[in-house]
């Protein structure tokens, strides 16, 4: 070991765990890092902002237990220090670092003379809070809102003081509550490298075994070949550190992120983090990472990329037993033996299935009635299901009814990026138009899509901005667009106020009626002997579902007798008539129970101002106009 300065006590061997920089009692700090392929490692300690290390500790294989180098040092003024590891003449960040320095400016290409300013910072546990007041809102009660921290409030139209930051999200909490949101999904907000480089670069430690990371290369000034990874789905990331450039005060990133979580929780809103792990990330790091965000910040759930995670390990982890885990699909048979349902559903299926089938049915494709009817009731007892009509990997809601094909030329890939399968329809004109007939048809299709989403049994998710007509000009993959294409234009609240009010109404109705969001999948049986199954499917003739390839008409009957309000009262009955054909059709209505009468609750062909008028139906049938959904209800 090199001889050190007088203000450092003699170093001692550490225990190895936990990995990272762990602050113990009496100013002792344990540094532990996994390096399987080298027998030597150097720990460099820097004063805050200093150019050269004030002390370096060289560890040989005698300091190694398993693959972990571990050293304990007594440091005065712990928070004044930063550190890097040197392995094989290359410098690396600690993959378990809790806070980064030198990353406070968004989109900055780090020049050669500043690259060593990006360091791991020691975070004292006294500055972190263990949140244990998790809201634990069940899946059936959730309304999820997916947002990008920067893009949510970066546009001046957001009218917040701290644009594009965690503080900006806090300022918009009253808006989220008014909308009816009780959960937010945050696109990557851990510290990732947003610079897309033409050569592979490893500014960040992306593996718990850092010696297996890619060779480090430095980049000078932006030469025009660099693009911004605006979304943050990248393999170059520090998974334990809040993103400093999303902060109003980057030096206090941990505190600012924590404050946002506290404020959201105080307003009854759960927080889920998108975690995009690289394929080569050690699975122990993944588990440790999720534990850290849960214990230190009180995160309520994680959206995980299925190809990188150890599914069964996470699903059976006791620490994560009440933390929601979202991924493409779950092998329930392997996780829950004998298909025994869990005491608390914390696993959730998150994929494009609903979006694809709903969009196909919405635009009138053939052979979609059976597929969409299955999507309406899908809500397994062993795991939840997230439904959405738009997401980052396709058109926004407004663009879905405005464009037939993607318009991604501004991404710089000659239009080759982004999916070709948007299942969209421009209603007659590609892009923006002033033609009244086209605008009216788009208006109806937007209402149809939203009604499909909120009247299905799975957990609804809406993309930020869809509730007021946000458009990305036909770009279905704006991963590199850190500009007005991706930033929310909040002026849409005024120009498309009808969509906002419609979304509020649908969320309110969904929350008011338990039969629209049951805790487990409806069984299509009359198992309480009330004379009607919990859910049944119909065609234009009541009780006769037509699933032929040319059929585009569907009726869905939800029996409120299966949703008890109290011992004496039940929920309302609902009959939803879907006509996705381009011609009007006469629907025969099922006879209501107890000699009640159907009333029209919503008709998507009617102007919004008529939605509050409940029209009593005395006839046995009702004409549903072309590309229209009508919702009937009856109650005692």
UniProtKB/TrEMBL annotation:
Domain of life: Bacteria
Family: Belongs to the glycosyl hydrolase 13 family.
Protein name: Glycogen operon protein
